[in-house]
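Before the break, one more example. Copy the sequence into your notebook; we will annotate it together after we see the structure.
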Amino acid sequence: MDEIDRKILQALVQDARMPLKQLAEAAGLSGPATSDRLRRLEQRGILRGSTIDIDPAALGYGLEAVVRIRPMPGQLHLVQQMIQETPEVVECDKITGDDCFVARLFVRSLNDIDGILDRIAERASTSTSLVKAKVISRRPPAF
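Here is what the structure looks like once it is written out:
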């Protein structure tokens, strides 16, 4: 990856829907050269696509929670399946340490959290923290 690739990625981080002409200007390239660079970044697996940023609060999801989940013996796969089937869970990592999963979820109320945790509690112990504020929103690693 060279400096031109970095310029392209930095521009796309700012606006993934940036028109090709504007992206080419930011990179100091022609449109076809920029298209070629984008294609190579995708082929190398560096650029995996573009996405949208939806505000959960604007959709009525006023609470965000981080839940650490520790399945009971023999329940790991069932708990993982439960997590995957819970639409309020927007992100989940399988981790090392005392817990097996860290899940991030959005809900409309505390009652919603209770309902989700009650289902999981049959097969795992949980520790829940409510998110007060985002200090750092998701960002790409340094490149």
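The chain has two domains: 3-43, 56-130. The mean pLDDT is 95. Try to locate both features in your own notes.
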